[in-house]
């Protein structure tokens, strides 16, 4: 292992770096206040796991739908303009929880989530390559890992908000008890719970508006914004001809799927286990969310550690090692039931920590101006977070598979995902540097 010497961040980029890095925390918050809502909406509207997972379909579908329009926009204008549009859509989606709560139906919330994540798609398509461009290319992957280190800080804040201001305040009656209520009683409980669920999103929308104003007022460097020509199809053909990029998109798709499955279903897995120990449904959900917060804390610490290790170990090799670790712990979730399986599931976060920014940095390395469209392809790969949780939910719905709890067996899907990521980490040895 050879130690590398390079400047991580030039002084002229310090203020823009801090402001853009704060956006990483804001979309982390949005992601992880939303993951527990699969269970919350399922209980509020008396839906099964698959129907509740439509929250994730709408959420990550917004990423997919808006990624290339965002890339075209920032190619035509600037990274700063893309970030402002992203913040505007983010705030709009969050504030749409006001009419959605008043209407009292599931579909308006899905629309609000979709608009909110169209904003997140703009933010990520703009912010990630902007961070990569703030200095030497040799330090770009480490710089992105540093910026992404603040993403889980937002995530753990989102989890805390979900646990403290939503889950703990919802009506304590479980799904079965709600099903026995009269239509009038059920509607009153539902509307009260929807008001509770919506309040944090409204506050977030106001905060995002303030962030919009702050970034709009600050002068940002216009590096990498010189070419505004939109050669959409030729650019796509050019970047997808590169194995480093093409395989990176595939690896990112599977990684995001694994991440969302592991984090979303910590609550499902924990709730089932703690209820089997005689705990009530709401109490089990709140306790499970505490395990989710511990997982995110592990993720944060591991992200900073892995960012440091990249000074000594090539990113691709480190990615492969971490994917092996994720594979081993997910195998533990499948094989061990009860609390040991939950510990394994929480521990997976230590190995997921570096994956998104590392795959991102490796895939975009050397793309130059094409990084704007390349970033869009990698953001579209977040669709994995929309496609895979419903598949896992469908397995969980079976109850038992091969004489084991379906919750355990369902982790065969993230197991496969980590195999794909490990292969990409290994394959980076063959890409030209």
In brief:
The protein has 21 helices and two strands.
Can you tell me about this structure?
With 433 residues, this protein is mainly α. It has one domain (11-223, 230-430): Growth Hormone, Chain: A (Up-down Bundle). The protein contains 21 helices and 2 strands. Strands 1-2 form a two-stranded antiparallel sheet. Strand 1 (400-401) and strand 2 form a beta hairpin. The longest helix is centred in the middle third of the chain and has 35 residues, at 183-217. It is globular. The model has no long low-confidence stretch (mean pLDDT 85).
**Series of H and E elements:** HHHHHHHHHHHHHHHHHHHEEHH
Strand content: under 5%
Secondary structure category = mainly alpha
How big is the Rg?
21 Å
CATH class: Mainly Alpha
For the record, the count of structural domains works out to: 1
- Could you tell me the number of beta strands? 2
Helix content: over 70%
* Order of adjacent strands in the largest pleated sheet: 1-2
